[in-house]
Amino acid sequence: MSDAIDELLKEGNANTLxxxxxxxxxxxxxxxxxxxxxxxxxxNVATAPATSVIVLNSATxxxxxxxxxxxxxxxxxxxxxxxxxxxxxxxSKLHAYGSIxxxxxxxxxxxxxxxxxxxxxxxxxxxxxxxxxxxxxxRGFLPAAQLAFDLKRLGLDGVMEGxxxxxxxxxxxxxxxxxxxxxxxQTNRPVFWIAPxxxxxxxxxxxxxxxxxxxxxxxxxxxxxxxxxFFHQTESARALLDIWQRLSRAYPDLSxxxxxxxxxxxxxxxxxxxxxWLPDSYWKAGNSQARVHGAVIQYDPSGMKQEPEEYLTWRxxxxxxFGRHQAPEAHLIMHGTxxxxxxxxxxxxDVLASNAQGVSGAVEAAAQxxxxxSGGFSQMEVVLCAWDDDVDLVMQIDDETWVLVTDPSERLxxxxxxxxxxxxxxxxxxxxxxxxxASPDQSPRSIFRLADPxxxxxLKRSGKYPASLLKRPLPMTLNE
Length: 480
Fold this sequence. Notes:
7-stranded mixed beta sheet
């Protein structure tokens, strides 16, 4: 089986997975760290210790339960098509370890891996001075002094910055990101931000030991927790910081956690950024006077300012719980050359009605077609929709851009985007969300081919969006 896995991950083979160089390198390192590697067929179990299990297709709930219950605590599950919601059940049964974002035609998928026990530091030798720990807060604030004491006690290099006492909340957030970027630029090592209200009991070594680009802890409800965040000295980490900085300046009144989440969404849809999902031990709640058992970083909830509930949106929570993008978010964004048209969204609907490899084939075909000939479109976004509600969320965006509706059985031809006649696009009416069309079955020129000719008729369209090429309306004004 190991030979088959090597063939699956080997670059250039006809049957190889469509992975980017960074993704392929990480998966090879992961699989070679374990004694066995198996390709799960939907039925067998994986009881051997230290086994890496690659899952290309999901299965029924009972079979998934059987797989999870058979896993040894030192085994991992790898999902090469982690963007697909069909794997949400598997993810919900495991601790998330890491993920790698998608990047263009060469890396159109979002890789995910996890295990049955929380992520821990791999065996090895690590130097304390290889990470710089940073924090900032209002001058004279006592918890910051406690954090400085903890870092000194543990022999960790740290930089603390004091802010003016009258600094507003919005300015504090921007100053925090500016401070992290400044320290990132001045040092030649990873930067680990820890909130000044936190208590550090042990060296937070995990992100450094993994070599990831970015590490963050997630709340149980799914949103990111910006109290402990790690940025490596990589271009991907810097790109994430830059996006987060731009968003914080553009939307100073929005939640810091929400903006970090959105920055990650944008970065991981365009870069093979590797994210480590920190275990609960890296952000445990407890009284500041007593240590919580197993806590590496601990915080006192009574001393922290809570984010407004309205910013902890259900979209952000539900999507990030499974470490994937969720409609209307795009898991893959590609930019066109010589653009003469605006952006286009390729919406792949009913993804749960097909197996994961079928959906991955549709994603790869869209990426290859856009890379081959962008047709003058400035940008392509690929969005996976499991339910009609997901489709509605994509269509409800008012930006006057195009949406190409496909399903997992269809493959875009290499010249699909140049063959699209945007004058044929059917515009959605904003007030009622109806379709303006003389012929509801109207579709663009022949830009599709069926993955399996035996499937017969092409996409069976129904409901409010029966056409292939749609145009979203202009944003509505307050007077409309």
